[in-house]
């Protein structure tokens, strides 16, 4: 009988915070930029330069801690983690080992088997390293220090997850919380959210954990899922062959769908941690903590409850809209202008979702303003433009955020609401299509659709289909 195995997974999630400047200096944190242009003596580790802590980093870390039910360490400090690596200019990293800012938290995730709580061991603040760019043509590596000193929080979970599905649910929940707080955009593809996966396996029923490996270089949910499944199989094969799993750090290659060993796992003593001598301890007073608590925004669960109470829209729509901070913001801002929740929800759920899919975009990449969406809804409601013109105009708003009033005026897209002119055109169409008229009178309902289509064509799509139908039925 073959043995049954259980996977045990814990995550270390690094999140780049959305501050305008770095953690210990005033250099820009903006993504992109020519190599080594967002740098200064502090973030390139020049002798004699001294770090100064960015207050906003502490506030974001506390906000994330509160939202993940952590206990906040009101007296905490930084430690120096010593290691030599080419993209680490000081030859040490300022981090937190002994007194992390947040501890003992948890979040609830939805799994196929129902709700599950995943523990958060700690959240600590640290600085990011630079980035090595490997040039295969020249066979050399170049260093870009733009990212060096960008503020990070590292969220360390307990080993509570048992499958790739649970891991994705946990990351999704974490990402939403952090986006709602405005603490980071959490774009995996830009590296502002990165996850290292600690994974071990054990026989079902066994109490002790197996030997774990850590996998790095995971920059999408798909890669994380594949890496977990690949590593699980690799460890089971080793055990089945009577071999041992070695504790090591492995790098996942998503193109080859396999991982390879990078280095055997270090322990804390290898890093020779000691208290950071250039920074004073951080004291978070009760007043400061309360100030941060009062600024906490409405998170997704509260938003869902409020939408159900305030807006008459389906639960499915509420789920999708609140599933993105950007969509929820657009939804609320548009309602504030046009007071039509159902219509706003329809435009977001149907046309916006379609265009996001067509352009391979995420909701957070939306660039149109609630103001212009509200104007478009008002134009349609007033009958100034018909629904097919409205869809056309919305495509332009989606791409270029144009003013719909101006656009409709310039392109001459207003509906012809002059009943006299419309009646004349319809009479001509009826006269020119005796066969369709006869079919309709013989009970073929579809024939009227053809006549409506012909009228719309003659009016260049600028008539109200409802009015055409009404006049046609009177004439027939």
TrEMBL record:
GO terms for biological process: glutaminyl-tRNAGln biosynthesis via transamidation; translation. Its EC number is 6.3.5.-. It catalyses: L-glutamyl-tRNA(Gln) + L-glutamine + ATP + H2O = L-glutaminyl-tRNA(Gln) + L-glutamate + ADP + phosphate + H(+); L-aspartyl-tRNA(Asn) + L-glutamine + ATP + H2O = L-asparaginyl-tRNA(Asn) + L-glutamate + ADP + phosphate + 2 H(+). The keyword Nucleus does not apply. Keywords: ATP-binding, Ligase, Nucleotide-binding, Protein biosynthesis, Transferase. Belongs to the GatB/GatE family. GatB subfamily. NCBIfam families: gatB, PRK05477.1-2, PRK05477.1-4. This is Aspartyl/glutamyl-tRNA(Asn/Gln) amidotransferase subunit B. It comes from Lachnotalea glycerini.
